[in-house]
């Protein structure tokens, strides 16, 4: 069993390799991550930077949808693994995940299909 100090965990899909990590900041978004808490509860999260958000918003407006909304959206100055990890750690400390609907238990990532990136110890 994992130590509770290993949580929250930011979990990436198994295909998220060094190349994907390199390309993510260039794209300005990443929407395939899951945050897992010590009790096994998981929350889907998405990350986007302000430039990509503005581009997406402009496109949505052109298409007649004057808004952009996504549950679990986290806006970062740059979408890097470091910023993603740090934001999850800080948001967890602030109780952010208490306000999100978790994934169903049977949807939780539990096998080799994901790569867990354990965060540093988080004090309550």
Write the layout of secondary structure elements.
Elements (H helix, E strand, L loop, with lengths): L8 E5 L4 H10 L1 E8 L5 E7 L1 H13 L10 E3 L5 H13 L20 E5 L6
Parallel strand pairs: 3-4
Antiparallel strand pairs: 1-2, 1-5, 2-3
Instruction: Give the quaternary arrangement of the chains.
Output: single chain
Helix fraction, binned, reads: 25-40%
Classification by helices and strands = alpha+beta
Q: What is the overall shape?
A: globular
Largest sheet: 5 strands, mixed
Q: Tell me the domain tally.
A: 1
- Number of helical segments? 3
Distance between the termini: 20 Å
* Mean pLDDT, all residues: 86
Spans with pLDDT under 50 lasting ≥5 residues? 110-124
Radius of gyration: 15 Å
Which band does the percent of strand residues land in? 15-25%
What strand line-up does the widest sheet have? Answer: 4-3-2-1-5
- Write down how many β-strands occur, each being a DSSP E stretch of 2 or more residues: 5
The secondary-structure element order is EHEEHEHE
């Amino acid at each position: 069993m994992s130590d509770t100090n290993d949580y929250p965990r930011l979990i990436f899909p198994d295909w998220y390799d060094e190349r994907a990590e390199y390309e993510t900041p260039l794209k300005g978004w990443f929407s395939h991550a899951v945050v897992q808490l010590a009790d096994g509860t998981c929350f889907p999260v998405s990350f986007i930077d302000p430039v990509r958000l503005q581009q997406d918003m402009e496109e949505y407006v052109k298409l007649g949808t004057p808004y952009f909304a996504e549950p679990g959206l986290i806006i970062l100055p740059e979408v890097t693994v470091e910023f993603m990890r740090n934001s999850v750690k800080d948001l967890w400390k602030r109780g952010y995940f208490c306000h999100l609907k978790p994934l169903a238990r049977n949807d939780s990532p539990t096998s080799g299909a994901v790569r867990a990136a354990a965060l540093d110890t988080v004090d309550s």
